[in-house]
Amino acid sequence: MDSTEKRVMDIITKFLETPQSLNPGMTLEELDIASINIMEIIISSEEEFGITFNDEDLMSLTTIQSVIDYVNKKLA
After folding, report:
1. 27: helix, coil or strand?
2. What pTM value is reported for the model?
3. Taking the CB of residue 51, how many other CB atoms lie within 10 A of it?
């Protein structure tokens, strides 16, 4: 697991109602994360990585891996 992946998973873990093991293929929907918490994940990720998520890209962030890939793209 690379640094970005671990940091994204750590952020997501903070907002889970029920602690569970995560893998990058999991969807945010199956994690049963409330929409307000999804926004908190985005804000926390922006702060953690010093990036900005574009509003029009948010709908494409459906899996943990898509969030990791998006962060990596923004950091490149």
Report:
1. strand
2. 0.90
3. 13
CATH 1.10.1200.10 fits 3-75, yes or no: yes
Q: Is the dihedral of CA 49, 51, 52, 54 positive or negative?
A: negative
What pLDDT is stored for residue 40 in this prediction? 94
Check if the beta carbon of residue 33 is closer than 8 Å to that of residue 16: yes
Q: Where are the domains of the chain?
A: 3-75
Q: Two tokens at 41?
A: 């994940």
- Is there a contact between 58 and 42 (Cβ–Cβ < 8 Å)? yes
Q: What is the pLDDT along the chain (76 residues), one digit of tens a residue?
A: 789 999 999 999 998 877 788 999 999 888 888 888 889 999 999 999 999 999 999 999 999 999 999 999 999 9
Q: How far is CA 22 from the centre of its chain?
A: 11
